[in-house]
Fold this protein.
Amino acid sequence: MQELAEPRYSLVAEPCRNFNILGKTVILDPWDNREKLVLSNFALGGKGTIIFIDTETGAGEQFVLPRGYGAWGIVNWHDEKLVIGTCVDQAYLHVFDLQSRTWAEPLESVGESYFWQMTLGSDDKVYGGTYPGCSLMQYDPRTHTLVNLGRVSDNEKNLYSRPVWGEARGLIFVQYGFDTNGLKAYSLEDETWREFGPPGAVIREVCDSFVCAALEDELLFFDPATLEPLDGAIWKGRLKQQEVLLANGQKVPVLALRDGRLAGFRGQDYFIADARIPGSLAAEPIDVELRRIPVEAPPTEVFSLTPDRYGQLWGSSGFGQTIFRYDPESGDVWNSSSVCNHGGEVYGMVFVGDRLFLSSYVGGDHIVYDPAKPWDQLNNLNPRTLQSVAPALIRPEGRSVLGPDGGVWTGWSAQYGTYGGGLSRVDPESLEVESWYDPIPGEQVAGLAADSRYLYFTTNGGASGLAFRTIRCHFGVWKPGEGLTFSETFEEGEAVGYALAAIGGVVAVGVGASLRIFDPETMSFLRRIPLPEPANWLVKLGEDRLGAFCGKELLAVDLSSGDTTPLASLPDRIRAATMTETGDLYFSSHTRLYVLGRTELAGN
């Protein structure tokens, strides 16, 4: 292989800008003695923010966290301080002084990547759950100290402690999972744990009088002091449901303001409604006026890319369930509101004609959007959410491709706490959805490609909510209408992922630090092409020429000869890449979109 070429790509934009609100609270702001709705915003690829919205005027302010992308954890400590947790790479805890508008020195939860939702205990300290340590963290606002109280679950395969509740005096309640799921109560007095409730139950509400948990459709009630069961008929009517039902049937969590109005958010918007929290589980839909969050949305990570036939480039956000459009000619950018009701992000993006088909996590959703029609996701008209493949399948890890039968196919990972995967197909005409669970038993679909006859997929040991397993990964060939026609088991330690491409009558599969070349005619692997390190993305550069993104290098691979040629050194590992019809190669790293033009590509 030749020596690495100098970079010849250009930075074109930071086109993906959205809010991903993961937490909320209400404060009486000592700065001006006005009530504010506070939103905790997660900005993947950038820095998280907290957003203040005046509940009367609608005026907004935004404050950037010192470190981290942001997260779910937010606690109002007596209208004096805001306590904020972050994820993904490192769990930071930040404290914002409301009077001085300053941040305290950030604290790290050593060994933890995530802070989840947080709660205020009756001892006036803040408690939060974590990933992957499944721990309970304690923060003392008076001394600005953070303490790890230890693992919530004795099962080392349980990585999550979330959510947490501190509403019952002297106790912190914690839910844990996902290898096994359970409930525990931590005593603030004697620092001991007690387990209660049936496995799989989830807490709905905690107060001094009862703990309400749900097991499927059944509500269970427990005495917070003894953890013994209570008569549910007595307590059911006292449940304080902290959500409202919108006109489209979606339930949205809310907070009560001082005057009784309700405040909440939905995707890129917030609302303040003249309504009251229902006093029972049955609630009538309410009308709300959705208002755009009144501060500038920050740049966020570009997660997927695909071109349309008009020269526009489309992509999705790394977290926040939005998509964007970028015009290479004018530089104009458009960012959407939420494409569906679930949280998460869009993985798969495939155009069929002028309509964009999407697949998204966490609800296992298939979505179709027509850019030529008015946006009306609230009423599920455009974009329209189709049949979901949840709960069996939730994460479209393999993304989506246009299959040989004209259907939009997606590769999936199984539900939380389960090793497994599947395939799904959307008929672009009828919008009918079909799915197939576990084509390779117990393994998620990691990569997906297609040619004029078959679909090709890889599997690995990943899962949602569980540790990654080192297994013997698989390559599969799937024929629409027939199913799995061929599979190959790789050697132990030969890792595979999304690097998969059907090109020039063969299939290139990233296996460890190499490309394995598969011949569909003979149903066999022909040869191996060494790479400097594993490829995390492949793009078609020509009829028998492939672009391989290997770490911070972009290589051109001649599939006939096996020769590799450096094209460019990259700013960082890329997240997504696509080739336009004009021959320009676009790729993303964090929040930035780059292009390597057709002229530069042709010269190599």
The chain is about 0% helix and 50% strand. The radius of gyration is 25 Å. Residues 37 and 176 are 29 Å apart (CA to CA). The first helix runs from residue 232 to 235.
